[in-house]
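Data follows
____________
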Amino acid sequence: MLYKAGLVAMLAGAEAFQAGAPLSMQQTRSVSSSLAQINMAAKQTPHGGKLINLFVADGEKESVISSADVTLEMTDRQSCDLELLNNGGLSPLTGFLNEDAYNSVVETMKLPDGNILGLPIVFDTDDDSITVGKKVLLTYKGTNMGVLTVESKWSPDKPLECLKCYGTATIEHPGVRMVAMERGKYYIGGSIQGLDVPTRDFPCATPAEVREMLPGDADVVAFQCRNPVHRAHYELFTRALDAPNVGDDAVVLVHPTCGPTQEDDIPGEVRHKTYEVLIEETKDTESGKRTKWAYLPYSMHMAGPREAIQHMMIRKNFGCTHFIIGRDMAGSKSSVDGEDFYGAFEAQDFAKANSEELGVVPVPSLNLVCTGDDTDFEYMTADDAKAKGLDVKKLSGTKFRQMLRAGEDIPEWFAFKSVVDVLRAEWK
């Protein structure tokens, strides 16, 4: 897709939500029972028509906690799912999927009510003592996050789940490996009573809070990432505002995930620091007026096309009308031979096919390259560079890491100096 002419200027920082500034407990609770009364600024309708809020009132918490029959400490992945259930990021869900809903999502990518859902949201356990009817207090690193009333318990067909959701059942795939080797043998589903929000390295604003900082009369383009933002990323999401299917006054929401991801990815706390310094470096630029930042407590599955749908649905709940679909979105490679599990444009095609039903407009990312020298450079499409006979600058991820560790200068056409400084100091 050809974008409108003109280069959008530098990447900018947040105005209403600053990375690194801790939110108060009252804020991170989604303002508890009053969330439903918030006049949400964003024009996008939540998935299913209503932004869910599962948090109980402060005065009810003790009685909810005392009603629990058993306590379970959650994994990082489970805590991310529960936080998004509680604050409405996974609307219209009101709890972990029961067996019938799980089967429906695995087989058809649809909830029983007909709403689309890319991947099943499940709670797993090895505990034989948990039975239907019991109430389970779910904790995470000292925080009581919610009480699950068990409505169903079953032994899932994990190979089938993997084949349907990930397109493969081999443990060479990181998502399949997670399902097969990390998750317990049982899934339990049921309704949730939300309690509190854990303290995370990334301060994660709720859907209601993000909506309040977004314009109510303009398109909002979401950009998902799980790595530091380098120059090519910056060019990609700022130019997305010039896409022909995006309104003139649109803003971009840069919305990195902060939960578990692939084993070899940069740790979350380091990623957060790179975002924080980048926001500070660019906050006074013109494009800062069109760039918002927030962070998402989400656990990556690397499920390619299905996960693209999940990302779009979640950002819909955060108020986004458009979503940037990059090459090999949420893709992964075999841990044995390094081959890709999905085609470069498979997620884009899948997103386009489901966008009307989902109510989110996909914005395919441009194939951008850099030309020029280390001080006078320009990004343009690969087709334009080829047509002009220009040489393209290249720096592989492996070479970049080697240069970082060796203390060599990293060219500014590749990465922002502030980001490089953090990586050099924090990432070994």
The domain at 25-194 is CATH 3.10.400.10 (Sulfate adenylyltransferase). Residues 193 and 424 are 43 Å apart (CA to CA).
